[in-house]
Design brief:
There is one protein chain. By secondary structure, this protein is α/β, with parallel strands linked by helices. 41% of the residues lie in helices and 10% in strands. It is built from 23 helices and 13 strands. The chain has a four-stranded mixed sheet with strand order 1-2-3-4, with helices on one face. A hairpin with a 3-residue loop joins strand 7 and strand 8. Helix 13 packs antiparallel against helix 21. It starts with a strand and ends in a 13-residue tail after the last helix. The N terminus and C terminus are likely disordered.
Length: 593
Amino acid sequence: MAIVFERMTRMRFRCRITGVGPPLFRQAFPMSSMLPDCHHNKIICLIPASTKRCLSTVSTSTSSIEKDDNFVRVRFAPSPTGNLHVGGARTALFNYLFARLFIPFLIFLLILPRFSHFYTDLERSTRESEEAVLKDLSWLGLHWDEGPDIGGNYGPYRQSERNALYKQYAEKLLNSGHVYRCFCSNEELEKMKEIAKLKQLPPVYTGKWASASDEEVQEEIRKGTPFTYRFRVPKEGSLKINDLIRGEVSWNLDTLGDFVVMRSNGQPVYNFCVTVDDATMAISHVIRAEEHLPNTLRQALIYKALGFQMPYFAHVSLILAPDKSKLSKRHGATSVGQFKEMGYLPNAMVNYLALLGWGDGTENEFYTLEQLVDKFTIERVNKHGAVFDSTKFRWMNGQYLKLLAPQELAKLLGHHWKRTGILMESEGLFVEEAVELLKDKVDLISDSENALTNFLSYPLFETLSSSEAKPVLGDSLSEFANSLLAAYDSGELFDALNQGKPGWQNWVKSFGKSVKRKGKSLFMPLRVLLTGKLHGPDIGASVVLLHTLGSGDIVASEIGFVTLEERIKLLKEVEWKSFNNNQTVLEPAIISQ
C-alpha cells in the first residue's frame, strides 16, 4: 500500500499477476482530438467482467486502445487534517477488499496528498494528522505495501514532495496548448460570476485569455501580473463513463468552462494533482466517495491531454445519518479514533463498515476481514446511501466482545478498569470472575466501567426509599433480614461462601426452607439486602464474588467499595419501621470498622 501525505490523503493498492509487469502509460487518444470511445480486450478471468469500462465523448474521430488488465492497483485518498472519518475508513476498506479479491500478492497503496476537494490551506495538513490516519488504518488491519513510511517504486508519497512533477506536467500542457495563462484578477472573475447569474447561466469562465496573443501574454508577464494555468475545455461534446457502481454517467462539456490547474502561487489544484498522481502511480481502479463524481469530468480531460490511460472509476455512496443527511460531527462520533476510544473493537468496525452499502446476498451479518476478502465484489456495492445505525453498531460490537476468549476479554477489561482508576490491579482471580459475571451487560469496553462500579456499590438506603422497593418491604423484609443476620452471625453463611458457588447453592436451599420461601420471594430480598439493588447479575455469583473480594484491597479507595462484612453491619443499623412508615432514613455516614 502506498501513501502520499499532505493536504489530502491518498491510499493505493496494487494487485499483480505473477510474471506481468506494471502497465505502460500509453497515449490513450490523439492529443489534438476529443475523447473517443475506448474499448478494451477481454479482462483476465480473475477480474470480474463488469470492471470493463467505456469512456467516450462526441468526436469526429475514434480509436481503440487496450488496457493491461493483468495489473490491478488501487488507492485511497483520505484528508490528513484530523482523524480518519468512518466514510473514509469504509472507502479504504472497499479498496483493500477489491485489491485482495484478485490475487494474494498485492500492494495496498496509501497516498496522503496536500489538497482535498474541501480543504486548500496548507497549514491544516500536519504530520500529526498524517500519523493519526496511518494509526487508524493499522488499527483496522488495513496494512499497506507502499507509502511515505515504507517507500516504494512509485514515490515520493507525499504531495509536498511531488511539486516538481506537477510543474513538469503543467508545462507539458502549456506547451501542447491544452492550458494557457490567465491573468484575470479576482475582481474580474467575480464580475463574470455575477453576469452569469443575472443571465441564469452556469458560473463558468468566459475564456478572456484563451485566445490572447503571445505579445499580450508577454506584456503581462513583464508587468509581473499574477497568473493561473487554465485548462482549455472543448466547447462541444460530452463525456460518458461506465462507473462500476453507478452505471453510465455523462456530462456535457459546455457546462464546465476552462478550469484552473495551477494557482497563481504555483501550487497545483486538487483535480490536477489527483490525475497526475493516479497516472504516474499506475492506478488502474479509482474507488472513492460519490462526492468526487463531478471531479471525474475535469480529470478525464487532463488524462486525455497528457496522453494517460483512464482508470476504471467506482464511486461509493455516502454514509448517512439517521435523518438521511450526510453523517457529520453534529450526529456524534464520526471518526475511527473516537470509536476506538469509546471501546469499539477493530474487527467489529471493519465488519459494520463493510455492511454499509455492501452485502453478499445472504442473511449473514458477521464476517472476519479474511471472509470479507473472499466474499467482496464491487458489483454488490449499493449505489444508494447507507444509514449509520449507532445502535446496531453497538450491538454488533457487543457480539464480538462476547466471542473473545475469556483470557483476552479479561485482559481488555482488566486493563480498562485499572486505567480508569477503579482497580489497583489489572489481572487476577477477581478480574477474571468479574468479567465472566458482567460481560453480558457490556457492549463496549467503556461499558465495563459502569458495570463494575455499579457492582461494587451498595445503595441500600436509596433502594429501600424507592417506590419500586415497596412490594419487597411489604413482604416482611425486616423479619427476613433478621433471619439472614442470624445465619451470618452463626457462621453458616460465611462457611458456605468459602466453598464457592456450590456452597452458596446448598446454603440458600437450606435457608429457603427455614424461612419457608422460594423463587422470587426468596431471591429478591436476598438481592436487596446483600447487593443493595433490585436488579443485577446472578445473585449467587455476585455474593460469592463479593466474598472473594474480601476487604477490597484491589479496589481504589475513591470508589467507596462496601465489603460484605460492612454490608452486614449496615443491615443491623436499619430502622425498618421508618421505611414501613414511608419516612426517609439517611444512610449512615461512617461505617465502623
